[in-house]
Amino acid sequence: MPDAEQLLADALAATRGTDVRQTERALDRLVVGDGPAVDAALLARLVRGVGRLWPRGWQPVDLDRIATRRLTARGVRLLRDVLAAQRREQPGPVPPWFADQLAELGARWDGDAGWLNRLAGGDRITGLRDAVDALALVEGLPPIAVLRPPPGGPAAAPRATAPAGGSRMLDRVRALLAKAESTTFAAEAEALTGKAQELMARHSIDAALLDATAERPDQPSGVRLGTDAPYAAAKALLIQEVAAANRCESVWSDDLGFATVLGFPADLAAVELLHTSLLVQATTAMLRGRGERRTDSGRGERRTDSGRGERRTGGGRRTKGYDESFLNAFALRIGERLRAATSAADRAAAEERGDDRLLPVLAARSDAVRERVDQLFPGVTRHRLQVRDAEGWASGTSAADRASLDVGSPGHRAVRRGR
């Protein structure tokens, strides 16, 4: 019988193919192989594969996000714990952000002995299948943009700190947005979201001016935000519009299910908070609009030649076109309003401070962000969105009017794609 390494290689090759019977035969041979040797080979290869991802731009939360999309729940749990096993292989301390992500995912390792049976709950066949699928995923991931120095690499240079009180400000923003999500009154949601954007814009200005006088000025960094189905393109557009309003740039990697947002730390925090809240508001409004649409459609009937009463055209149609158009319109209108709010905050800050320093500082930061985008994503293309449902577009625009700030004219934006 082949050794454990060969059995694993055969199972992995079969999993990557399209022959289901061959895959099952390879898995059967793995099941009847030397259990401890197979488990050790699997663990070693998983740990090596995960470790190779960090210099290729991946972070623990990125890996978990795509695993959630492509693996079973058991496979996701298994891979999370393998992250903890791989952590032991890192020489010296890991960056704080890396340790924080592992803690956020609940990654833990209870020892190598019997690890697969332990994680699989005693179902060895299913556990082996999930482990092989996880290994195929890990070894098949492409390189992506490196947003942070990986574990084991050179340490990041010290950065300027955010203005004092920044954490308290973000807590205020979170509270305002939570109220905006929960209220059923459009005017109240508008006021709360507007106040949140005003606070974040002013915080961004304070951070920019402080950083301009720092001995080691900060540099643009990045975060990745998930764009899960359904309507991933519309969600990417919302991220892009919120990013633009907060002096950031966004590039969507549709095949990997995330958008990369590049900007300075205070601005990235604003994008994460506002995007999360607006996605909740948009989804809630979309579902409410869909229900109202069905109610309206059901009020009228037409008669067919057979004499039967039927709901008029539109009442029973699939809602995909409506939902996509709704979310696209919502994103574009929100972007216009948030950009207007940011511009107003910039003008007010310049008048209050009475100097000519602010606008050049902000312009220089925008240039730095665009330069970073060009470095990390030289092959970006643009994807034009299509309006498939006029009613959904109108409803999404109206919902954005209720959710945020001043009215602006509708426009068409392209979502930038890259890896």
UniProtKB/TrEMBL annotation:
It holds the Pfam family DUF2786. Residues 168-206 form the DUF2786 domain. Signal peptide: none annotated. InterPro entries: DUF2786. Residues 289-313 have a biased composition (Basic and acidic residues). Residues 289-320, 393-419 are annotated as: Disordered. This is DUF2786 domain-containing protein.
